[in-house]
Amino acid sequence: MRVLGEFIRDIIKENPNNFRVFGPDETMSNRLSHLFEADNRCWYLTKKKEDEYLSYDGRIMDSYLSEHTCEGWLEGYILTGRHGVFVSYEAFIRIVDSMASQHAKWLKVANELPWRKDIASLNYILTSNVWQQDHNGYTHQDPGFIDHLANKKADIVRVYLPPDSNCLLSCFDHVIRTKNYINVIVASKHMRPQWLTMEEAKEHCAKGLSKWEFASNDNKGTDIVLVSIGDAPTLENMAAVSIIRSYLPDIKIRFINVVDLMKLEPNTKHPHGLTNVEYNKLFTKDKPIIFNYHGYPTLIHELTYERENKNISVHGYMEEGTITTPFDMRVKNEIDRYHIVIDIINHLDIAKTREGKKIIRLMEEKLKYHDSYIREYGIDMEEVRLFKWE
Q1: What is the pLDDT of residues 77-94, one digit of tens each?
Q2: Rounded to a whole number, what is the distance in angstroms from the first to the last CA of the chain?
Q3: Separation between Cα atoms, residue 363 and residue 324, nearest integer Å
């Protein structure tokens, strides 16, 4: 989000009359402080000496802690032919569920009327998300807005889960130019690894999903397909591959990252969806597929239920959470690297061997050590905090 803030700052500078940023009083919390290098908060009351970044003609609409008010402002603004984005904590965007639903219905009907002009898309960025709430906790954990919008008309809804900053920039550059959609981008406000160069990110996001060759080793046959959707699941899957390579280098893993969630649906259901031939070529017809997903696992089952390959396992948010460390949140919901390694082994014949059982036991010991470590020190283990892909 810090990186995206620089991009949005420049959009504000170059579009002083037709672009605004909307959201509750959380612009700084969402790591968008670079915006204030270009403009200030819109403010109409008396200004006090200690106030910061307030202006009577400011274009950053965040001085009001009310999601439904911000939603109404943005909807009205884009209906005038201008452009904007709504940035929110992921859990509290649910406050505008019904408003987003009504806008989706309005777009459906408007698109059927030839005299209606195109309007800028309704764009959401969901941050301060479920996978790192080390001081807010369980109340701030709800990725369900994706599920809510996934049920709307396929020609209206788009959902993007970029795995790193370059992919986030590419996704935002795309959605801010679109018309007549509801776009949702889910992105962390915390430091995350950078996996792809800018050119690689553009190509990856244009496809919507792709096999990451640098994380795969299945050129001579595939044993298992490992899929990440979201930045935290991507980090954990990369760490899981690193662990598997250290113990079982002969296991052939195909690593796939999904940016455009609706790619998983058949093309007969969604215009972005893969054909069955494309899906089978990428995901295989019969090899085990392990999905590690940002949100509720049931949505992945819904999106893929018509696909030929039924041999799937889905990890995601299971409504387990509290005020805890970032990695412990992943452990509690079993999207962490150790649970993924266990799942990989359990899907292969090696699970029945002495070596397979030994590795599973080692992973279980790691999980126990993690639990005792965070209770004693209050932070995640060094091997988690300092992990780097090599």
Answers
A1: 999 999 999 999 999 999
A2: 25
A3: 21
